[in-house]
C-alpha cells in the first residue's frame, strides 16, 4: 500500500502530502506572525520606557546638576531592571552617555540616530548592536520651556521579547502533528478499504486483470452464469453457451425467456443454493452448482457453474483405472523383494496381483533358480507360488513339476521371451493341448482369460508368470498385457537378486561349514561342549578349535573376523589353518598370537595391493593352553572378549587377561595370564556376538552372561544350553561361537618323574625305573620300546644338552615320555650313512613312537614321544 503502485497507495500518499503542506503552511504563517509581533512589542516597550524615564520627575534637574552620572546611573539601572529592557541610557545633546549598564561605556558616544530626538521628536529604530539584533527608542528630555536638554534611549533585543511566541510555537506544532496523525490514520483507513476493493492493483494492472479474467472465464471447460436478483442473465461464458445452447444475445435477457428446460430455468431464476444438481439438457447430464453473490457484501444475485458429468464420468473412469495401475506398480516396487528368498518373492508377486489385477496368479520357476543356479531351458519348471480368490481352482498345485508344451501360452513365452495374451481360453487349442482334462476343468470352473509373461533378468529367463481371470466377464486387453509385463519385470529383478543371494549364501555356508571343525579330537584333559550359530543374514567369520598338544595338554582357540560373506569365511579359514600350523610348533600363547598378528598384516598388505579386495579389519583371537598335570591354563588374547571361569562351587568370574590389540595392527607385544584351575572348573570362551549387539552394550551382555553362567548346570552341555536360552531372544545379527570346557586333572599316580645325573651310567638306572613304573601300571608289554626310546632321548640329552636333566612319564590316553634339559638346541631327524657311528637314535625313536617332537620352555626344552596304549 505504501509503495504507491496500487490505487489505494496512490490515494494514501496524496492525502498525506496535502496534510503535510497544510501543516507546513500553518507553521510558516505562525513563525512570520510571531516575528512581526515580537518586533512590534520591542518597539512599544523600548519607547514607553524611554518616554517614562525622560518625563520622570528629577530627570531635568539631574541633567543640569554638576555630576549627572552620579544621580542618573542608579535611577537608570533600577528602571532597566523593573522594565525588563536591556539598557536605559541617558545622554546629553551631543550624544555623550551619562548612564549605561556597563560603566566603561559611560562618557562615550551613543550609537544611533539622534537628529529627530534633538528636534523634539521620538525615534524608534532596529539595529544590530554589540548584544545582537535589537530595537531602541530615543526620546528628548525637555525643560519647562520646551528646550531639549538631554536624550534618553531604551533598547531591548528581539530574543528577550519572544517569550509568548516560544510558548505558542510548540503548541501549534503539537496540534499540527496531531492533525497529521489523524489525517494519516483517516487516509490509511480509506486506502485500506480501497486496497481490499482493488486487491492492491494499480489502474493498468486492474485493466489487465479484468482482461485476463475475461479470457480465463471463456476458456475454462466449465459453464459459468451470473444472474442478477431480477432473473436477468448478466454474464455467460463460452462453455455455458455451448452446454445450454444459449442464443448470442442471451446476456441482458431474462433466463425464463432463453428457451431452457423448465427445471434449469427455474433454478437459475430462483437464485436458491444448489450443490451438484443433475439436470438433463438435451442429451447431456449437467451438474449444476449455484451460490448467491451478496453474502460477502457483493451485489444481489447468483452465480451458477455447469459441468458435463457425462464426459467427466468417462474421464474419471479412465483416470481411476490409471491411478489404480500406478498404485499397483508402486506397491510392486515396495512390497515385492522384501526378503532375499526366491519362493517368498514369488509369493509376494501373487499376493499383490490377486485380486487387484487377476483372480488367480501362478509363478513357475526352473528348479535351478530355486537353488540359486542358472536356469536350464530344457529342464522342467516347478510351481513356486499360487494365489487366488478361492482355494479350489483346478490349477497345478504348489510344488508340482510342470513341462509346458510348445503350443501353450507358457511355452511360447519361455521360447520367445515375450508375453502372450489368450483373451478366450475356450477358443485356444494350443493352451488346451497342455492337459486336455485339466483344461476342460479350468474352463468349466469359470476361468476364461489368460496372460503369460516370462520372468526375464537380462538374457536369462527364470520362469513364467500366469494371470487368470474368472470373475470379470471382460477378457484381458492389450493395456492389461502391458501392465502385466511391467509388473513381472519389476518382480523379475527381485527374484534374480534372491537367486544370486541364494547362490552366494549357499557357497558361503558350504565354505564355512567345511572350514569349521566337524568333530572334536580325542583328549582327556577337558570335557568340551560347543555351539555355533550363524548370523541371521549371511555367514560370518567366527570360528573355534580344540587342538591336542604334547604332554597331555590341550589348546583352545576362539576367533572372529568382522563382516559377513565369502570374504569373511575365507579369511576365517586362513586364520584357522595358520593356527593349526603354529600349534604344531608347540609355541606359548603369546608367541602364537604374535605370529598370527604378523600373518594378518601380510594378508592386509596383499589384499591392499590387489584391486577390489578389502583388508582384514577387526579380526580377534583368544588362545588358551591347559595342562592337566599342573592344572594351569595360560591365556593370551588379541582384541577378543575375556574368558569366563566357573569355579566348582558355581561362582563366576572374568579373569584379568591382558587385552592386546586386534590382529593385523602390529607393533605391540602380547601378554599372557596364567590361571590355576581347580578340577571341575569350567572355562567359557565365546565371540562378541553372544554379549554385544546394536541394542545392547557389551557391559550389559557380560552381566547377563554372568547371571546365566551362575545358574547353569555342571556339565558343559547344560552350560551351553542355559547360556543360549537366556542370551538369545531372536536370531543374532552376528555369528555366535560358544566353547565350554570342564577341566580334568591327571592324577598323581599317573605321573612319574626322575632326575638324571650327568653320568652316562645313569641311563641304565632310568631304564630300570621305567620298567618298574610300567609294571605298576600294567604296561609290561611296552617296557622294551619305552626303554629303547628313553635310552636314546636321555643319551642325546647327556651328550648334547645341558643339565639339569630329568625324565617324566605320563599315562593318559597314550603313554607319554618326556626328557627335559636346559639346552635350547633342537635335534633333527636324518639318515645316517654306513660309516657314521651315530645319528640313528632319533630315527629309531620316530619308528617306535606314534608321535614325537620338541617343546621349548623359558629355560630349555622338552623332547617327547607318545606311544598308544595296548
UniProtKB/TrEMBL annotation:
**Keywords, ordered alphabetically:** ATP-binding, Cell membrane, Hydrolase, Kinase, Membrane, Nucleotide-binding, Phosphoprotein, Transferase, Transmembrane, Transmembrane helix, Two-component regulatory system
Could you identify this protein by its name?
A: Histidine kinase
Please report the organism this UniProt entry assigns to the protein. Streptomyces lomondensis
Domain named PAS is located at 209-249
The protein's matches in SMART domains, at most eight in alphabetical order, are given as:
GAF, PAS, PP2C_SIG
Entry keyword annotation includes Nucleotide-binding:
yes
The cellular location(s) given in this protein's UniProt record come to:
Cell membrane
- Record-linked InterPro entries: Bact_Sigma-Reg, GAF, GAF-like_dom_sf, HATPase_C_sf, HATPase_dom, PAS, PAS-like_dom_sf, PPM-type-like_dom_sf
**Residues spanning the membrane:** 12-32
Amino acid at each position: 500500500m505504501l509503495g504507491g503502485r496500487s490505487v489505494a497507495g496512490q490515494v494514501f500518499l496524496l492525502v498525506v502530502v496535502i496534510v503535510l503542506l497544510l501543516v507546513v503552511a500553518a507553521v510558516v504563517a505562525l513563525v512570520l506572525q510571531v516575528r512581526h509581533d515580537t518586533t512590534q512589542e520591542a518597539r512599544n516597550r523600548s519607547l514607553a520606557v524611554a518616554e517614562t524615564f525622560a518625563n520622570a520627575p528629577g530627570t531635568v534637574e539631574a541633567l543640569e546638576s554638576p555630576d549627572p552620572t552620579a544621580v542618573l546611573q542608579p535611577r537608570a539601572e533600577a528602571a532597566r531592571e523593573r522594565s525588563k529592557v536591556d539598557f536605559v541610557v541617558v545622554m546629553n545633546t551631543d550624544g555623550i552617555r551619562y548612564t549605561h549598564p556597563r560603566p566603561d561605556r559611560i562618557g562615550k558616544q551613543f550609537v544611533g540616530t539622534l537628529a529627530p530626538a534633538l528636534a523634539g521628536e521620538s525615534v524608534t529604530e532596529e539595529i544590530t548592536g554589540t548584544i545582537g539584533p535589537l530595537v531602541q527608542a530615543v526620546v528628548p528630555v525637555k525643560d519647562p520651556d520646551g528646550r531639549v536638554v538631554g536624550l534618553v534611549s531604551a533598547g531591548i533585543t528581539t530574543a528577550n521579547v519572544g517569550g509568548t511566541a516560544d510558548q505558542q510555537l510548540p503548541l501549534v506544532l503539537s496540534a499540527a502533528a496531531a492533525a497529521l496523525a489523524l489525517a494519516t490514520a483517516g487516509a490509511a483507513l480509506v486506502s485500506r478499504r480501497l486496497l481490499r476493493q482493488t486487491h492492491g492493483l494499480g489502474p493498468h494492472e486492474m485493466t489487465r486483470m479484468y482482461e485476463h479474467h475475461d479470457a480465463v472465464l471463456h476458456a475454462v471447460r466449465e459453464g459459468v452464469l451470473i444472474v442478477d436478483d431480477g432473473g436477468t442473465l448478466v454474464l455467460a461464458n463460452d462453455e455455458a453457451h455451448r452446454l445450454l445452447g444459449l442464443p448470442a444475445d442471451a446476456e441482458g435477457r431474462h433466463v425464463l425467456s432463453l428457451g431452457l428446460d423448465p427445471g434449469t430455468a427455474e433454478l437459475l431464476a430462483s437464485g436458491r443454493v444448489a450443490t451438484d444438481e443433475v439436470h438433463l439438457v438435451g442429451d447431456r447430464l449437467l451438474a449444476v452448482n449455484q451460490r448467491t453473490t451478496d453474502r460477502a457484501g457483493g451485489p444481489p444475485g447468483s452465480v451458477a457453474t455447469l459441468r458435463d458429468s457425462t464426459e467427466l464420468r468417462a474421464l474419471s473412469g479412465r483416470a481411476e483405472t490409471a491411478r489404480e495401475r500406478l498404485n499397483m506398480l508402486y506397491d510392486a516396487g515396495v512390497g515385492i523383494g522384501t526378503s532375499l528368498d526366491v519362493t517368498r518373492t514369488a509369493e509376494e508377486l501373487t499376493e499383490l496381483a490377486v485380486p487387484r489385477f487377476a483372480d488367480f496368479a501362478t509363478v513357475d520357476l526352473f528348479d535351478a533358480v530355486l537353488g540359486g543356479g542358472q536356469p536350464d531351458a530344457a529342464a522342467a519348471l516347478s510351481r513356486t507360488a499360487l494365489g487366488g480368490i478361492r482355494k479350489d481352482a483346478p490349477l497345478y498345485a504348489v510344488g508340482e513339476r510342470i513341462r509346458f508344451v510348445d503350443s501353450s501360452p507358457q511355452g511360447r513365452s519361455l521360447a520367445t521371451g515375450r508375453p502372450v495374451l489368450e483373451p478366450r481360453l475356450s477358443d485356444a487349442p494350443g493352451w488346451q493341448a497342455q492337459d486336455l482334462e485339466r483344461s476342460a476343468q479350468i474352463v468349466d470352473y469359470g476361468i476364461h482369460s489368460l496372460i503369460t509373461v516370462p520372468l526375464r533378468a537380462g538374457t536369462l529367463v527364470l520362469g513364467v508368470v500366469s494371470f487368470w481371470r474368472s470373475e470379470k466377464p471382460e477378457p484381458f486387453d492389450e493395456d492389461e498385457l502391458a501392465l502385466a509385463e511391467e509388473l513381472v519385470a519389476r518382480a523379475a529383478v527381485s527374484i534374480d537378486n534372491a537367486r544370486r543371494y541364494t547362490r552366494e549364501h549357499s557357497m558361503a555356508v558350504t565354505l564355512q561349514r567345511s572350514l569349521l571343525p566337524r568333530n572334536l579330537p580325542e583328549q582327556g584333559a577337558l570335557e568340551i561342549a560347543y555351539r555355533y550359530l550363524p548370523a541371521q543374514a549371511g555367514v560370518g567369520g567366527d570360528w573355534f578349535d580344540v587342538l591336542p598338544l604334547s604332554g597331555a595338554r590341550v589348546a583352545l582357540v576362539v576367533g572372529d573376523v568382522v563382516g559377513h560373506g565369502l570374504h569373511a569365511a575365507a579369511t576365517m579359514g586362513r586364520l584357522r589353518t595358520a593356527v593349526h600350523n603354529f600349534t604344531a610348533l608347540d609355541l606359548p600363547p603369546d608367541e602364537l598370537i604374535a605370529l598370527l598378528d604378523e600373518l594378518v598384516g601380510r594378508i592386509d598388505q596383499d589384499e591392499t595391493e590387489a584391486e577390489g579386495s578389502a583388508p582384514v579389519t577387526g579380526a580377534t583371537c583368544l588362545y588358551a593352553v591347559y595342562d592337566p598335570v599342573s592344572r594351569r591354563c595360560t591365556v593370551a588374547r588379541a582384541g577378543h572378549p575375556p574368558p569366563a571361569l566357573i569355579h566348582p562351587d558355581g561362582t563366576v568370574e572374568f579373569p584379568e587377561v591382558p587385552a592386546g590389540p586386534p590382529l593385523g595392527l602390529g607393533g605391540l607385544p602380547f601378554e599372557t595370564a596364567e590361571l590355576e584351575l581347580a578340577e571341575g572348573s569350567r572355562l567359557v570362551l565365546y565371540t562378541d556376538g553372544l554379549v554385544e549387539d546394536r541394542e545392547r552394550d557389551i557391559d550389559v551382555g557380560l552381566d547377563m552372561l554372568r547371571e546365566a553362567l551362575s545358574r547353569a548346570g555342571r556339565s558343559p552341555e547344560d552350560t551351553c544350553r542355559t547360556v543360549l536360552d537366556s542370551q538369545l531372544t531372536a536370531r543374532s545379527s552376528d555369528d555366535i561361537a560358544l566353547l565350554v570346557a570342564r577341566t580334568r586333572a591327571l592324577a598323581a599316580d599317573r605321573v612319574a618323574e626322575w632326575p638324571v645325573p650327568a653320568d652316562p651310567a645313569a641311563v641304565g638306572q632310568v631304564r630300570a625305573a621305567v620298567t618298574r613304573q610300567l609294571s605298576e601300571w600294567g604296561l609290561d608289554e611296552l617296557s622294551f620300546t619305552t626303554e629303547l626310546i628313553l635310552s636314546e632321548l636321555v643319551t642325546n640329552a647327556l651328550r648334547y644338552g645341558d643339565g639339569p636333566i630329568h625324565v617324566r612319564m605320563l599315562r593318559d590316553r597314550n603313554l607319554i615320555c618326556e626328557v627335559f634339559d636346559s639346552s635350547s638346541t633342537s635335534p633333527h631327524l636324518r639318515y645316517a650313512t654306513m660309516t657314521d657311528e651315530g645319528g640313528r637314535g632319533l630315527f629309531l625313536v620316530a619308528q617306535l613312537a606314534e608321535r614325537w617332537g620338541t617343546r621349548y620352555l623359558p629355560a630349555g626344552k622338552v623332547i617327547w614321544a607318545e606311544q598308544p596304549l595296548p
